[in-house]
Write a structure and sequence with these properties.
By secondary structure, this protein is an alpha/beta fold. The protein is built from 16 helices and 14 strands. Strand 1, helix 3 and strand 2 form a beta-alpha-beta unit.
Amino acid sequence: MSHARRRELSAWFTYTLARLEVGPHVIAELKKRRPQLLQARSIVLISFGKAAHQMATAALTALDGLVVRGLCVPPELFAAPLPPLEVIAGGHPLPTLGSQRAAVRALELCRTADPRDVILCLVSGGGSAILELPADPNVSIDELRTFQQALVGCGAPITQINTIRKHLSAVKGGHLAAAAAHCAQIITLMISDVPDDQLSMIASGPTAPESSTLADCRALLIQYGLVASLPPALRQRLEAGNLPPPIGAAHPVFTRSEPVVLLGNKNARHWLRMAATARGIHVIDDAIDDQPFVHTADHLLARLRQLKRNNKRGPVALLNGGEVTVSLPATQGLGGRNQQFALLCALRIDGEPITILSAGTDGIDGNSPAAGAVADGDTVARAKACGLDARQQLRQFDSFPLFRALEDAIVTGPSGTNVRDLRLLIHE
């Protein structure tokens, strides 16, 4: 197999990340709206998620000369001061006390806005954990984190995870918008990390209307065995049917609410495709998403081999965006869903002229320092030469040490954004 091809795929991913910078998109959108925003007494800016600091910095540039106040809620790594905004760091992938303090403050800002104010929400991936407040104030942060850990590791697709979150939260499922009932307008600019850029799913839809019911939430909790993990106060309210419902589309605030998706996975796929086609590779898209990683690997590899049988003249590739689901055991090593996917593929393609990239655009894969990894038909043999058993590492959910030893882990550091994962599979 080709060392050069593995390095190439890693470089293409880095190239793609560089083109997903959020700031120019925020500035362009707000410059279009500046005449409208000039009519407001003040802009109440609330930015939260993995790209919160970058989005808010760009917004302040675009809004120069206007009266701006508000809140920036980034992950702890990006919690630098950003006057005139208050900065409260939130937690990710699990909420923290900072997440709760930030949610309380965001709700306060919305409630105190009046018809002379425009609320500008800047929302990005990770917002579900970074801005969070339980629907019952008696839930402790330890109880909340324990439940959220079970929730994100249960193997459910992100849309189902976020449906559950909306019914257990005081800020998600339209509740933030409802708190802003008296403002002139709510504008929500979003970086999408959900399938098909579903507005109500990005950060669990704090400013979007919600149509799911408590019965839907209860059914999902039962389906994934999560009822016992619920904090007692929330479990009691669930059993009594006494949780505040998400805010539906009939609420009058949504007549003054405008959502805009600035970036999504389609943008990331575009740039990765451009990098591959520039090297003469025939690229086909595959839309499989939010499926177990084993099913996704088998599906993509079967289709890739069929494409190669139909096109023998040169390399062919499958491009896939989105996420795979992984049900985590009680104990696991270092890795994440992308490296788990890549290692499984390495076992499936042993000896074949296939190279695979799988990485997250947030630069973070699970509990490892990597964004993802590249693998090929030599990965298993090279790992064995280093004293590593690929199959055992896969069983132990301990893929990062193997890819690190082979220098095939993709380490970019946190990117400050998230438009879901990317996978590219090339058959020479």
